[in-house]
Amino acid sequence: MEGWHRWWGYVGITMSERFAALHNRDFRVLWLGGLFSFMGVQMQFFLRGILAWDLTEREGALGLVYFVFGVALLIATPLGGVTSDRLPKRTVMLASLSLLAFSAIGMGIAVLTERVEFWMLLAASVAQGTAFGFFGPARVSMASEIVGRDNLGNAISLQSLAMNGTRVFAPSLAGALVGWQLFGIGGAYIVSASMSSLSLLLTAILPHRPAALTGRSNPFTDIAAGVRYVNSVPAIRNVVFAAFAVLMFAFSYVSFVPAIVEGEFGLSEREVGLFTSASSLGALVAGFWVAGLADSKRAQGIMTAAGIFFGLMVIALGLAPVFWVAVVIAVLAGMGTTTFQTLSNTLALREARDEFQGRVQSIMQLGFAGFGMTALPLGLLAELIGLRPTLVIMGGVAASAVALYGAVSERGGSHAAEELASSAPGKVSV
User: Fold this and answer.
1) Tens digits of per-residue pLDDT, 206-253?
2) Which residues fall within 8 angstroms of residue 50, CB to CB, at 6 or more apart?
3) What domains can be seen in the chain, in order of their start residue?
4) H helices within 87-117, ranges in order?
5) Are 359 and 223 in contact (CB under 8 A)?
6) pLDDT tens, position by position, 305-321
7) Phi, psi (degrees; rounded to nearest 5) at 87
8) 16 CB-near residues (< 8 Å, 6+ apart)
């Protein structure tokens, strides 16, 4: 009977509980704006990979596109975290969305005029990485401001649900537009820019909220204070390290999807879209499930299991004998990564003080910068030893790191209260 109640606790979540944060009008606007923004960004992600492969047909070139994205994200994200704490978050989001829209328009014009070159893809990657570095911390920490701590996990889950929903439809839409002579790759980029523009309009109607951090201290001093704060709170620090390992290694498999589908299985761009949509479908299912659990006491254990599972799925992808097996694995991988990322963000932000929300989120987001930067060496490794062995290594590193996190967390559980007390906000030097 006890086992039944535990099982029902996972699935017996009412629809009202799953969508609790959407009862707030401002969060609904933020969520809808994020939906359009994610749609445009996911289309650009798909288009950039297709265009890079068409121009070069090299895994290293795919890795380089994501590498420069990662470098830009690495530089911009800490500044974005401080900016989100020091300036109104709506202002930061508006500037970021404008950059995303203009970069998509530029690429669309270059393709339509048949003047596109590989360096333009690198420039677009830099622009998108920079925009993400500011947009991500502002968006997530603004959700925290709007809904409060009690519904924070639900808000993050619903934002993740919107992102993963677009991962299902955006690649399919982009792929359909690419294959439609009226649009092609250039027209698809213009459609992507229109999505960012819609998000811009919705963000503009959000209410003005003053910055959480006051004063005129040096931004680099504020960045250093944020790093010290994260390092001083074990509950945040350990989650950050686990998230870094997953994003920098296992999640990097998305950089090589065109090479997996077209290079390993000898298929076309259509199947690239199918594979990406399959991964996103799994992510969408997991996002709906985790929305009712993100604020529960089981979140940490579920996060650990999901991270290990995701790493194992990347290993399985490297061993997949045929395309349809790889598609099934992609669905499962999407479920694992979404569950892990949603809960890791929730656990980190739940422990963070209000004036550190932007900086904590920016540090979490640095894992995506790492994902972009590891794509280049992993791409070169794939050219040296083969893509399949490289995928096995990537998944193994991530699964091992999360298992270590789980072991450390369990071993330190009896000392959690003392650790949290020793790292209380009042004892952190900023």
Assistant:
1) 887 766 555 556 677 777 888 888 888 887 888 888 888 898 888 888
2) 178, 185, 258, 269, 272
3) 18-208+217-414 (1.20.1250.20)
4) 89-112
5) yes
6) 999 999 999 999 999 99
7) -120, 160
8) none
